[in-house]
Prior knowledge:
Strand 1, helix 2 (38-57) and strand 2 form a beta-alpha-beta unit. The chain has 5 helices and 6 strands, in the order H-E-H-E-E-H-H-E-H-E-E. Strands 1-2-5-6 form a 4-stranded mixed β-sheet, with helices on both faces. The longest helix is centred in the N-terminal third of the chain and has 20 residues, at 38-57. The protein is α/β, with parallel strands linked by helices.
Amino acid sequence: MSGVRLSRTYLPGMLERNWGRIISISSASGLAIPQDMIHYATTKTAQLSIARGLAQLTRGTNVTVNSVLPGPTRSEGIETFLRSQASEPSAPIKQIEAEFFATARSASILQKTAFSPSLCLRPKGAVTGQTHRHQKLIETSTPRPGLCRHSFW
């Protein structure tokens, strides 16, 4: 709900100035819903829907609305989750992590947060309504100029 409240507060001023950036940090789970995390994916899908609506609302202005969809992230507390998903939960954590992240396209928190500010720059941020996904430790975007796809939130 913080994204909704922040947009309600700041979007009118952005539109008045005809410039602004809204970036939603959502999740790849908003598009590919994990069976064991439906509750989480629901909130991320809602973020994408709100962003898509805002991107359509700001079309034709210099206000852009985009989403960043990180996949699994190496962070504190992930060991418990990884063990719960492993075929051999008692295996060494490095082995479990290597097996999981071989298919999960992980990135570190630093890598993911370093990407988002680039959407605020005038040249790169000029496209609105985009979904920017993190792929294999590198963040890449899927630009579709003029098309409001899954956007910010």
